[in-house]
Amino acid sequence: MGVANALAVRQATMKDVDAMLEIVNEYAQQGLMLPRTKLSFLENLQSFIVAHDGDSVVGVAGLHILWEDLAEIRSLAISEKAKGLGVGKHLVLHLVEQCRLLGIKRVLALTYQQVFFEKCGFWVVAKETLPQKAWKDCINCSKLPMCDEIAMIFETA
Ligand SMILES: CC(C)(COP(=O)(O)OP(=O)(O)OC[C@H]1O[C@@H](n2cnc3c(N)ncnc32)[C@H](O)[C@@H]1OP(=O)(O)O)[C@@H](O)C(=O)NCCC(=O)NCCS
């Protein structure tokens, strides 16, 4: 796979959904991220982007707006064969730019990948400093009783 091709990023479409599911749920089975259902991708398709190498989807990421000044990066995953080529950083910076264009000041990631997000310009914040709306979907999460994810923020402005 050529790196330049792999860095092509576009809006996700219906024909990408099965590949997106496969990439995310493989990591979810390893406990590295939350699982996704097909319906959850379909219902939120407009908020997802994919990295592709020709017809092959090699990475996925979504942006979920939480409030007027806060959006969260969700379901970021790069296929095993494309890891370490800069694809993840490219997707994150694409979503950061989307936030800037939308006038959203802060981008949130809840993650185990602290070093990766630091390389993307994020820094760690205490979870208690995040507004309550950042947690509204956590009610459906199996990790809720003792969430061990790290909260990280990027300021767009
Ligand atoms: C974490 C993940 C998204 C990184 O994507 P990637 O395309 O492999 O990362 P990139 O090649 O864009 O790396 C960008 C930088 O981060 C570093 N990096 C990437 N993954 C890293 C890791 N696990 N630990 C430390 N540094 C890491 C790279 O070395 C690179 O550094 P550089 O800019 O100095 O060269 C990818 O490994 C993945 O899908 N992991 C499994 C799912 C997951 O954990 N998703 C995150 C949910 S929030």
UniProtKB/TrEMBL annotation:
Tell me the keywords, alphabetical order.
Acyltransferase, Transferase
Task: Name a GO molecular-function annotation.
Answer: acyltransferase activity, transferring groups other than amino-acyl groups
Question: Which part of the chain is the N-acetyltransferase domain?
Answer: 7-151
Name the InterPro entries for this protein.
Acyl_CoA_acyltransferase (IPR016181), Bact_Acetyltransf (IPR050832), GNAT_dom (IPR000182)
Question: Which superkingdom, per the lineage?
Answer: Bacteria
Q: Does the keyword Repressor apply?
A: no
Q: Which PROSITE patterns would you find in this protein's record? A: GNAT
Q: Coiled-coil intervals in this record? A: none
Which Gene3D superfamilies does the entry link to? 3.40.630.30
Q: Which NCBIfam families match?
A: PRK07757.1
What's the name of the protein? GNAT family N-acetyltransferase
